[in-house]
Predict the structure.
Amino acid sequence: KSIEEAKTSPILGFSFNTDSVKTELSNISNVMNQYLDGLNTGTVDPDETLPKLKDALNRAGYDKVLTEMQKQYD
């Protein structure tokens, strides 16, 4: 019964076209690979590392990807 009454997400079926942000997505992937292992395993101090991660993501083009995704969704 709960499944039958569940609301459908408005994003269901959305498919992001990455053509215009391929470089940025590659850069973001490289940044994530650089930081995630240490954060996930607790071998780095998150108070020091998270600001560095955020800065690196911004330099990698995160905002451009987010803007493009929102543009396509709207």
